[in-house]
Design goal:
heterodimer, A: 274 residues, little secondary structure, B: 272 residues, alpha+beta, globular
């Protein structure tokens, strides 16, 4: 189909007028255009009174004479007629183009036609459809410059205190249901690498020394050498009195030791029994 | 052998074969015998030797003992001691022990117990009445001293041997000092031990024992070699009585916690 040149020129001019941004007025009045371009685009009161349904053009109210100057009449200029292109008479050296065999888009009778899913045009009222504001390129509003290479994790001081990566656990952490594996008795505990064997806790220090000493100081290897001891022999048994303390020879743990029989002033009783 | 030994052997045999008797076919009997942890032959040999020793009226032997001690939970130190023992059931016990630089002689004549140190020239004596087992317990509780080779000398040796035994195996025969012996291994919860018993049925003397404490760290062992068995030693009354020299120092045994419950309490508990 071939449009006439004058009709083609008119269509192009009309299209240019309709899409011109804010340029030529396509509305009946400038007041109406201003109201529609007002922020929000909503008016509580309609501009015109409802006129109801119209059946005939006779009911149309006569237009009021406008005080404003009439709009300039734009007359599209017609382009010059193009010279007619005549096909060349020389033989073509190109291979002859065959008509494409693409399938027809026409509906085939007897088949269900589904609606075409076309993308919905973006709505500018949605926040995610709004265009990203272009930050002005001036100091203070420029985006922060990354202080470290992109493949290096951020420094620790930029993280909040106590921050840990996901699924982080302290060392030697075990789930609450964890139990140590079964170990067959006897439980001989090896000495600690620092505290040694578990017979003595260094925190006790000298607190229990007197108690332990008094409880265990029953036998001594020898009587005190720095004191003058008096040897006593009674019923064939030998005893020693050193500073009021009575010692006697005793056989204990297959060795000869000296047993502290009594403190000064204590009465000896039952020494000859075993 | 006496009737007591025969009863024990009969009961042991019935116990071992009870599972097999319940089965109907021969294969079940064989399987039951294989699953029985106590080898009847091993138990029979050990019990026969134990009852033989328990029934001996008088005997003497020499012994050599090496025992391990685990130091600092890692190092094993072995101590040795040796001596000889003469036993007259119920009336006399004499033993000499040499351990390190110390020498000890132990006398018990049924009325008095004495410990003598020949090289340190001291002795301790105390009256005591009771059996050898009572004496052993009293000495251990009162002085912390263990009489040498006391287990073998006990009259309850058969019961002590089989107490707590979980498994026994007869490992065949071998030779010790030219004498053919049975090699038997026993397992108990706290101790494993092996014993070598003479194959002579008339004199089934134990010649060597090795005990391993599996409940202690390092599994220390005690190895005892028994030699010079004599069934007719010198067992006069003077042999078991100690007479101190004039210059000997008499020492006492430690005072009991309650002096009134000394020998009397021991006599009440174990006096027979």
């Amino acid at each position: 189909m071939k449009l006439p040149n004058n009709l083609f020129t008119a269509s192009v001019c009309a299209l240019m007028l309709s899409v011109a941004p804010g340029g030529l007025l396509l509305y009946p009045s400038s007041a109406e255009a201003n109201s529609l371009t007002r922020e929000g685009g909503f008016r509580a009161m309609p501009t015109r009174a409802p006129s109801g349904a119209r059946s005939r053009d006779i009911d149309r109210r006569p237009s009021t004479p406008s005080a404003r100057p009439s709009r300039p009449q734009i007359t599209p200029s017609r382009p010059a007629p193009r010279p007619t292109m005549q096909p060349s008479q020389r033989p073509s050296t190109r291979p002859m183009m065959q008509p494409s065999q693409r399938p027809s888009t026409r509906p085939v009778p007897g088949q269900i036609q589904r609606p075409v899913q076309r993308p919905t045009p973006a709505r500018p009222d949605r926040p995610y459809n709004r265009p990203t504001p272009v930050s002005p390129n001036r100091p203070g509003l420029r985006p922060p410059v990354r202080p470290y290479p992109p493949n290096v994790r951020p420094p620790l001081h930029s993280r909040p205190p106590g921050w840990r990566p996901p699924h982080w656990r302290p060392p030697l952490w075990r789930p609450p249901s964890w139990r140590p594996p079964y170990y067959r008795p006897p439980y001989s505990r090896p000495p600690h690498w620092h505290w040694g064997s578990y017979y003595w806790n260094p925190r006790w220090q000298w607190y229990f020394t007197a108690v332990v000493g008094a409880a265990t100081l029953v036998f001594v290897d020898k009587p005190p050498a720095d004191e003058k001891c008096v040897e006593i022999e009674a019923d064939g048994e030998t005893a020693y009195v050193c500073d009021g303390v009575l010692y006697r020879d005793t056989y204990y743990n297959d060795e000869l030791v000296y047993e502290i029989v009594s403190e000064p002033g204590e009465v000896i009783d039952g020494a000859d029994k075993w | 052998m006496n009737t007591k030994l025969h009863r024990i052997l009969l009961g042991l045999t019935l116990l071992c074969l009870s599972g097999a008797a319940a089965a109907s076919d021969k294969a079940a009997d064989t399987a039951a015998a294989e699953t029985n942890p106590i080898d009847p032959q091993a138990a029979e040999i050990v019990l026969r030797s134990a009852y033989f020793l328990a029934d001996l009226p008088v005997f003497s032997f020499s012994w050599f003992l090496s025992s391990d001690e685990v130091v600092d939970d890692r190092e094993k130190i072995t101590f040795v001691e040796s001596g000889s023992t003469t036993v007259k059931r119920g009336t006399g016990f004499y033993s000499s022990r040499e351990r390190g630089n110390t020498y000890r002689d132990y006398y018990f004549n049924g009325k008095e117990f004495s410990v003598v140190s020949p090289n340190e020239n001291f002795y301790a004596s105390a009256p005591f009445t009771g059996t050898y087992d009572d004496l052993m317990q009293r000495v251990q509780a009162g002085t912390g001293t263990t009489l040498p080779i006391w287990t073998i000398l006990s009259a309850d040796l058969p019961a002590k041997l089989v107490a707590g035994v979980e498994a026994a195996a007869y490992l065949g025969t071998t030779h010790i000092a030219g004498q053919e012996v049975h090699h038997i291994a026993f397992t108990s919860p706290d101790e494993d031990w092996q014993i070598w018993i003479s194959t002579d049925d008339d004199a089934p003397f134990p010649l060597m024992l090795i005990g391993t404490r599996t409940d202690l760290k390092g599994w220390p062992q005690q190895r005892v070699t028994l030699m010079d068995w004599n069934l007719a030693p010198n067992a006069d009354a003077e042999r078991f009585k100690f007479t101190p020299d004039k210059g000997s120092i008499r020492v006492t045994f430690p005072m009991p916690a309650n002096a009134d419950t000394g020998n009397a309490a021991a006599s009440k508990e174990g006096g027979r």
